[in-house]
Specification:
The protein has helices spanning about 1-10, 15-25, 30-45, 50-70, 75-100, 105-125, 130-195, 235-240, 240-255, 275-290, 300-305, 330-340, 350-360; strands at about 200-210, 220-225, 235, 265-270, 295-300, 310-315, 320-330, 375-379. The protein is rod-shaped. It is mainly alpha-helical.
């Protein structure tokens, strides 16, 4: 491991300087001793001259001079001082000589240490003195990794706790779904029959997979339907027509909708294949749904249109390839309902029936989101 390698070899900057000085002294110990011996020899005897003896003789002569002439006392004092300094120098050289150590084992150790530091310096492209900074940086990174590992372990613990809680909640939701689905499918089947789908059967298939983790739990829900007595229960997209899907959507919305859902719903071809009393039931369902949301419905049945709070007529002009959307006031609405009932020519009977539809349904009208009225809107 890189940190272990650095820890075994790295030293502080000042320690490196001290070590290098020690290495230099040990590697040159013999040469130092020889130089010191040479100095001592030069002081004690050189060309048969002993410096101490020479200065002592000079001192004796100066003493004689001083006895004759007192003004020579300063010269005597200088010579005595030189003698003392030479003696001090000699003793200092001897003390230094005693500090010079020849230690081959220690020298070999330092030599190996310096070689190791040189190798590491080349490896990390740093000066030997700066290797300690490399070590500190790697220690810091290691500490961060250890902390991150601890955080990951804490997160894993938290995740496991959340998964455990998830399964508890998902299991409760699954049981509630299966219980309520039986009630819901009966209500939906009954309402579809009222809307002209007499032989239909609606089923809610719930398949649970306790290994599945999702925001909706571990249930897979599928809506199945059969539209006649001889057919099998199949997924909606495989069997239901556009009109049947619209009626089914309406019924499901009536049974399950909350005020937090979307603001507008659009139904097209919802009245396909129905009429009379069934159409009136459909209109009542749409009117009921409009309590909670804005409902837009394209219809050809007067019983359905009569339930609306706002009635628009869509006219197509094949010559100009344009479509015109006309908002109908009360009188225009009566005329349009009469046309839807009796055809192009309006009669007193159809107009009267249209008025009766509106009057009969006026007590059922509930306030919905208002749509801005556009007259003669072309697009």
């Amino acid at each position: 491991m890189k940190i272990n390698e650095l820890e075994q070899n790295c030293i502080q900057s000042e320690e490196y300087d001290e070590m290098f000085e020690e290495y230099k002294r040990l590697s040159n110990a013999l040469a130092l001793k020889n130089k010191i011996i040479e100095c001592k020899d030069m002081i004690r005897s050189d060309n048969n001259i002993d410096l101490n003896s020479f200065l002592s003789n000079v001192n004796k002569v100066l003493e004689d001079v001083n006895n004759i002439d007192a003004s020579a006392e300063e010269l005597l004092s200088i010579n005595i001082n030189i003698l003392d300094q030479v003696d001090f120098l000699t003793k200092s050289i001897e003390r230094y000589e005693n500090t010079i150590e020849i230690n081959d084992e220690r020298l070999a150790f330092l030599d190996e240490k310096i070689l190791s530091l040189n190798k590491l310096a080349r490896k990390y492209n740093e000066e030997e003195k700066d290797l300690i900074n490399v070590l500190n940086n790697k220690r810091s990174k290691l500490e961060n990794l250890i902390k991150n590992k601890e955080n990951i372990e804490n997160y894993n613990t938290e995740i496991n706790e959340n998964i455990s809680n998830y399964h508890i909640i998902a299991d409760e939701i699954s049981k509630a779904r299966k219980k309520e689905s039986l009630k819901l499918e009966k209500k939906i089947t009954a309402n579809l029959k009222k809307l002209g789908m007499n032989n239909c059967e609606f089923k809610i298939s719930i398949t649970s997979d306790n290994k599945l983790i999702s925001k909706h739990g571990y249930d897979k829900v599928m809506f199945l339907i059969k539209t006649n007595a001889k057919s099998k229960l199949l997924p909606l997209n495989e069997i239901a027509s556009g009109g049947e899907l619209s009626r089914l959507s309406l019924v499901i919305q009536l049974e399950t909708r909350s005020n937090n859902d979307c603001e507008t719903m659009i139904f097209d071809e919802i009245d396909t294949g129905i009429g009379g009393a069934t159409a009136e039931v459909l209109g009542n369902h749409l009117s009921k749904l409009s309590i909670k949301t804005q409902v837009l419905c394209v219809t050809h049945l007067a019983q359905v249109a009569a339930k609306s709070n706002h009635h628009y007529l869509v006219k197509k002009d094949d010559k100009t390839s344009s479509t015109e959307l006309i908002y109908l006031n009360n009188e225009m609405k009566i005329n349009e309902l009469a046309r839807m009932i009796g055809g192009i020519e309006l009669t007193d009977k159809t107009l009267q029936f249209a008025k009766e539809l509106i009057l009969r349904d006026s007590t059922l009208h509930l306030k919905t989101h208002h749509i801005k009225s556009y007259y003669d809107l072309k697009f």
